[in-house]
Amino acid sequence: MTTVEVPTPDGFADAYLAYPDDTAQHPGVLLYMDAFGLRPHLKVMAGRLASAGYTVLVPNVFYRHGRAPVVDLPEFIDPSRRPEIFQRLGPIMRSLTPELVMRDADAYLRWLADSPLTTNGPVGVTGYCMGAGLALRTAATHPGRVAAAAGFHGGNLASTEPDSPHLLADRVAAELYFGHADQDSALPPEQVDRLEKALADAGVRHRCEVYAGAHHGFTQADTAAYHPDAAERHWEALLALFQRSLKSD
User: Fold this and answer.
1) Torsion of CA 47, 52, 54, 58, to 10 degrees
2) Neighbours of 102 (CB within 10 A)
3) pLDDT value for 160
4) Quick one: pLDDT at residue 84?
5) What 3-state class would DSSP assign to 186?
6) What angle do the packed helices 98-114 and 130-141 form, to 10 degrees?
7) Do the beta carbons of residue 103 and residue 13 sit within 8 Å?
8) At residue 249, does pLDDT exceed 70?
9) How far apart, in Å, are the Cα atoms of 111 and each of 13, 46, 64, 240?
10) What is the CB-side half-sphere exposure of residue 177 using CA atoms within 13 A?
11) Percentage of the chain surpassing pLDDT 70?
12) Phi and psi dihedrals of 188, rounded to 5?
């Protein structure tokens, strides 16, 4: 487990790297952070994936604004009590355009491909909150590289905007899984339906599930949205997806 620097066209992205404690190569996984950023909890999540046999890269996607943590965070995040956190994060999130996201994805995937810790095969991608949209965009723009992608409590995955992630569905070759929160204003029922229809119409292998009783951010144990049962269900789905897609041999 270590911190690495990933060269990109716009500089260097600081990132966390987790991998099994052996000398073997393992399938690569790109883990996209939520809006709160690269922090101890995401490192724990990366460690759990690594213990299942993957080399996991967690980039600070806000690196253009500084090294992680870009915004100072409390040990336990409750946005209702700290509204200034989102006030600071909002402009940073909006500055990460789809064009920048995909430019960075090229760099992250290239870094994983060049790493002596990864196999030569395809990679998996998973993302949380805003990271779910990044995962879908990465799968769509790198169909020959990404074999599996997942997103959990994603926001605005199928909006009416002209650059909505769901509009890229016909470019996806990977198997996809999405775990939605049923109490999530960032992905209302009409967007859930719109995403499902786009994936089905494009013939994408996928499964979308709505987690009852879960709120936006339910996988994040350092936040007020954490839902232990839903978080464990997410791990079961994610590990099963990667097992069948990245370890088919």
Assistant:
1) -30
2) 15
3) 97
4) 87
5) coil
6) 70
7) no
8) no
9) 11, 17, 18, 25
10) 20
11) 99
12) -65, 165
Tokens of 51: 């213990």
Instruction: Give the C-alpha separation, 176 to 199, whole Å.
Output: 9
| CB 46 within 8 Å of CB 69 | no
| Continuous H helices in 56-215 | 84-95, 98-114, 130-141, 189-201
Q: Sign of the C-alpha dihedral, residues 92, 218, 18, 24?
A: negative
List of residues 6+ apart from 180 with CB closer than 8 A: 153, 154, 187, 192, 208, 209, 210, 211
Q: What single string gives the DSSP state of each residue in 42-101?
A: HHHHHHHHHHTT-EEEEE-TTGGG-SSPSS---SSB-TTT-THHHHHHHHHHHHS-HHHH
Q: Give the pair of three-digit tokens for residue 187.
A: 């992905």
Nearest to 138 by CA among 177, 179, 180, 104: 104
DSSP state of 240: H
Sign of CA dihedral 4, 5, 7, 12: positive
Length of the chain equals: 249
State the sign of the Cα–Cα–Cα–Cα dihedral 165, 167, 171, 177: positive
Cα–Cα distance for residue pair 7/151, rounded to 1 Å: 25
pTM of the model: 0.97
Residue 54 has pLDDT above 60, yes or no: yes
Inter-residue contact 34 to 71 (CB < 8 Å) = no
Residues 209, 247: Cα–Cα separation, whole Å: 23
